[in-house]
Amino acid sequence: MKEWPxxxxxxxxxxxxxxxxxxxxxxxxxxxxxxxxxxxxxxxLAAAIKYRPRGEAEWREAPMRHFDNDRWTGxxxxxxxxxxxxxxxxxTDAFASWQRDLDKRVTAGQDVASELEEGAxxxxxxxxxxxxxxxxxLEAAAARLAGGEAAEARARAAGDAGLARVMARWAERxxxxxxxxxxxxVVDRPAARFAAWYEMFPRSQGRVPGRSGTFEDCIARxxxxxxxGFDVVYLPPIHPIGRTHRKGRNNALVAAPDDPGSPWAIGxxxxxxxxxxxxxxxxxxxxRFVEAARARGMEVALDYAIQCSPDHPYVRxxxxxxxxxxDGSIKYAENPPKKYEDIYPLNFATADWExxxxxxxxxxEFWIAQGVRTFRVDNPHTxxxxxxxxxxxxIEAAHPDVIFLAEAFTRPKMMRALAxxxxxxxxxxxxxxTTKPELTDxxxxxxxxxxxxxxxxxxxxxxxxxxxxxxxxxxxxxxxIRVALxxxxxxxxxxxxxxxLCEGVARPGVEEYIDNEKYEIKVRDWDAPGNIxxxxxxLNAIRRAHRALQQYENLAFYPADDPAVLFYGKMTKEGDxxxxxAVSLEPGAARESALHLPLDALGIGPDQPYRAxxxxxxxxxxxxxxxxxxxxxxxxxxxxxxxxxxG
Amino acid sequence: MKEWPxxxxxxxxxxxxxxxxxxxxxxxxxxxxxxxxxxxxxxxLAAAIKYRPRGEAEWREAPMRHFDNDRWTGxxxxxxxxxxxxxxxxxTDAFASWQRDLDKRVTAGQDVASELEEGAxxxxxxxxxxxxxxxxxLEAAAARLAGGEAAEARARAAGDAGLARVMARWAERxxxxxxxxxxxxVVDRPAARFAAWYEMFPRSQGRVPGRSGTFEDCIARxxxxxxxGFDVVYLPPIHPIGRTHRKGRNNALVAAPDDPGSPWAIGxxxxxxxxxxxxxxxxxxxxRFVEAARARGMEVALDYAIQCSPDHPYVRxxxxxxxxxxDGSIKYAENPPKKYEDIYPLNFATADWExxxxxxxxxxEFWIAQGVRTFRVDNPHTxxxxxxxxxxxxIEAAHPDVIFLAEAFTRPKMMRALAxxxxxxxxxxxxxxTTKPELTDxxxxxxxxxxxxxxxxxxxxxxxxxxxxxxxxxxxxxxxIRVALxxxxxxxxxxxxxxxLCEGVARPGVEEYIDNEKYEIKVRDWDAPGNIxxxxxxLNAIRRAHRALQQYENLAFYPADDPAVLFYGKMTKEGDxxxxxAVSLEPGAARESALHLPLDALGIGPDQPYRAxxxxxxxxxxxxxxxxxxxxxxxxxxxxxxxxxxG
Lengths: 647, 647
Fold this sequence. Notes:
Oligomer: homodimer
Number of strands of chain A: 27
C-alpha cells in the first residue's frame, strides 16, 4: 500500500530520456539540478542532491533550496574526469515545521505549553541519535524547552539558529523520499567541448611530388599548424591500403599502378587496423609524431573506420565475420544498385559477434596504448547502435579521457541517437547552412535546446568529402566567412587542410574536390599567396583568450538589420567575459548593417558610454549608442568585438 | 554486450512521466500512438503497437506506419471501460528489404541469380514456421524463386503482393526490439469527460422554513433539475453532523440550539461516514433518491470528506488514528494560528495506518454498494498523495466506472499531481479567471498542453465557498456570462444551486455567500422572477445536441477585435460538428466586435457564402463575409452558432 513515497519528486532537470542515457558536462563545471517537490499539507520540506563519482559507494550530499512554485534547485561540483550518479532526496523537516507554527501561536498569544512539550520530545529524539558535543547540546535544549521557565523564554530558545543547525544534523528525516531514478552525467575533459581541429592526410605532408609523405614530414608540419593555433591534428586512416578493386584518381574504378588508394579501404597483406602503412613509417615513427604534437600542446586524433578491404587479414582469418552469399563468397558493400567492391562490411550480428565486437574494441585499445586519446569515427550510423553504446562505455570506464567524434551525416534523429548513446562530439550540418535563417535556426537547435545536454556539435568548414558551392564560388572572402563562423559559433570546430589555401575547385557538378586527396598524394605550397593562415591564427588566438568562446551552450543571436549580416554573441555564465560577432554572409560585396547591441545583457545602460574593441583588428571602434552601424567587406567580412563600460 | 536492442524506439507519445502514470481516455476513443524508430543502415523496418486490456495475458497488435523523419504512428480502439497496457515493437523486415533491393538490381540490369537464392531461403524459413495453406503457398513460392525460370520471371514472382502478405504473417521478425516501458491508459466511461453537474444541499430542498429537507424533497426537485438538462446531482456530505464546537450561522464559533451545523463536520453518536443524517431520511430513502435520479437519466454524486467531528465514532473506537497531544488528548485541525475545533484530522501515517487506510477505502465501497458511482473528494491535497493513488487504483480495479472529482484549490503542481495520480476530474481556477487573457491562457493550458492527457478540468461557476466579485457585482448578465463560458469552454462544468436564481450577496469583504448554506437550512423559491433556468436549459440542450461540445481537448480561440469579447470554438476530429461561441465579458454594457471566423478550419472558402445559425436564439444570422460584426448585450451576452456552406 505505501509503496509510493509521501513526497513526490518530479520534473527533474537535467535528465535525458528519463535517465536512460547520461547527460554530458566537462571537468570544472558545476551541475545545477532542478526538481518539483510536492507534499500534502503545509509542513516545511527540505531536500538535497545525492551524488557520487564512479567507484564511490557513499553518496555525497548538496543542499537544495525552494526556488518558486514548488520548484527546488541545488548544485554540485564536477571535479573529476569520470561519470557521476545523482538523484534527489526530500523529507519533512519536523523541527522547522514545529518551530514555524510555534512562532505563529506565540505571536497570536496562544497557550503553547503542550507545543513546547512536543518540541522537547523532537529534540530529545535527535539527541539520542547525536554524537559528541551535539548530544549534550541537544539534551540541554530539550531540558530547557520542557523546563520551568516562562513559555515566552522557552519559545525564544526554540528559535535559536544554533539549535536549528544541530537539529538539521541529527533529526530524523521524516517521510524521507527518494527520486525513483538514478541519473548520470559523463564528465569529460575540457577538450571534449573546446578544441580547434586540423585534418590532414599524412601522405600529403611530403615535399616530393608522387612520393608519400611520412610521419617525419608530419612532424615538420607541426610548427605551422601550431602557429595557426590548432589543438588537434586529425589523420585519416594510417593503415595499409587494400589492393583488390583499389580506386584510382578521382574515384576511378580501376587504379593505375602507382595510385595509392583510399585510406578508408583498410588492410592488405601488411596488416589491418592495428598496422601502419609502411610508406608512412613505422609504429615507432607514429609514436614520435604523437609525442611531437604533445610537446607543442596539441594532440593527435585518429580515424576509426570499421570496414575492410578484400585484402584485410580478417577476411582470411575470420570469414565468418562477413556477409556471405549462398555460394560461400564474401559480399562487398552495396547500396543497390551501387556497388563498393573495394570494401567488405562486417556483419555485427554474426553468430560469432562477441569475438568480433571484442576485436573491434581491441583496435581502439591498441591505439590508446600508442598515446591516442581522440578518435574520429567514420560512418557510425551504418553500425548497430548497441555496439557503439557498449564500445564507448567499455572505453570510458577504463579511459575516461578518450574522445569519440561521430562522423554521421545522416538523418537528424540518428545523429542525435549516436550522441545520446555515448559519442563525445558530433559532426553537424553546418557545411550546408549558409543563410541567416538557416544558421540561426540550426545553431539555436544545437545550443539552445535539450540537444545540448548530450550532443556537442562540431563545425567543420570542409572535409575531404564536402566542398560546398559557397566555397566553390565565393573565393577567399567565402573561406574567411566560413572559418569565422565556425570558430565563433561553436567551441568545437575544424578545417580540412587546403582550406587555409582557399582550395575550392570541385569535380564538375558535385560538392566534392577535384583530384580528391582520398585517391592521390598531394604536395602543396603551404605558404601559397592568398592563404588565410594569419586570419585563422588570429581567430584561434581570440578563442584561447576568451572563455566565452570556449563554452558551447552560451550562444545568443541578436538583431542585425541586414538579412545578409549574422550578429551573435557568447557570454560566460559568470558575466566576466563576453564576445560579440557580426559576419557578412555575402562574399561578393560589402554589406552595411545596424547592429542592435545587447547592452542590457552586458550590464550597460541604454545611454551609458561604452568602449568597443575590435579583436581581429586590435583597435578601438568609434561606436556610440545602442545601434551602431558596421560595414563588412569581402576583405574583412567579420568583426569580433568586446564591449565595456567606460571606466 | 547485446543487452540493448538493435532498433531504438523512443519519444513515444502519448505517455506520462515516462510511464509512471497512466494517461486518460474514454470508451469509444481511438488511441493514436507515435514513436521515433531508428536503426542503423538502410533495411526496411516494420513496427506495431502491442496492447491489451486489463486481465488479458496475450498482446493484441495494431500496425504502425512510417510517417516522416523516422517518426511512426498507429492506433488502437479503446472499447472497454478498463485500463489498457500498450507498448511498441519494431523489427527488420528482411523480406521487404530483400525485395526492394532485388527490384533496384533488376532495374539496373544486374545479375540476380545469387539474390534469388537468398530470397528463396528466406521464404523457405518462413514456410517452416507457417501453418495450413500458407505453408504450401510459401513452399511453392520458394521453389519458384529458386527454380528454372528466367531471372526476370522469378524476380516478378518475388514482387507478388500476396506473397508479401503471407510473408508478413510468418517471416521471422529479425532484430525484434521492444520499447523498454509498458505504458497505460485508463479508459473511463464517457461521463468522465462530458457532464453538467448540479450541486445542492439536500436539507435545503424542503418547503418548510427552519425544517430540514429530506431525500423525499430531493426527489421532488429532480424534474426541475432534469428540465435544466443536468447530468449529475452532487450532494455535500449526507452524514450525521457533529455537535461539539458545531459552527453557527455565518460561521459563528458558537451554534444556536437549532443550528444544523456544517455537513463537513462529519459524525456524531448516530454514526459516521457510512451513516445518513436522520433528518434527511434513511439509507433506503437515499437509495430511492439515487434510483429516481437514474430513472431521469441523471446520476448522484456524493461528497467524500476525510475528516471527523469530535463526536465521530472513529474518535472513540480508534483514537490511535488521530494526532495526539503529549497529554493524550486528540488534536483538532489547525493552520496556525487558525484553529478548527469542530474537526479532527486523521493521521495517515499512524502506526495503525494500514487499518485506517482500509477503513477509508471501505467508506467508498459502502456508497458504491448504495449505487453511487461518482465522488467529489473534499480537499484531497491535505491527504498523502500515495494514499490517493492506492485508493483510486483499488476502486478502479473493481469498479472502473467510478469517477473521482478532486476538489483541490491549491498550488498548480499539487493540483496536477492529484490528477496524474488518478483523479478522474479536477476542479480548476476557472472561477478566478474573468478577463480575456486570463481565460485564454488558462483554458489553453488545460486543454492544449500535455496537461490534458491526465487532467480533466471541471469548470464550476460557483461553490458554497466561492462567490466571486464578478457575480457579486454583475447581476443577472454576469450569471449568464459565467454559465455560458463554463458550459462551452469545457465538456465538464457545474453550478451550485442558487446560481440559477442569480444569488449574489456576499458576506462583506469576502468572496463567500452571506448566510452561507453550509451553516443553515435554506428554503428557496426555485421559480423566483429573474431566474436563468431556461437559459441554462438551453445551454445544456445545445451541449447534448453537439458532439463538438462533448469533447475536451478540441478548444480553439479565435480573434475578436473587442478586448471584452472572447471568441472560440470546438470542432470534432472527424469534422462533422463544429460550434463557435462569442461571449461578452462585460455584464454592464453592450459590446460590439468583429469576429474573425475560422472559415479555413471549417472547410469554407474565404469568398464562399455560408449560413450562420444562432443556437441560443434558434434563428439564422444575417452575416456575410469572413469578419462579421456581433453585438452582445447584458440581456444576451453570448452567441453560440454553427456555420455551414450554403447547399
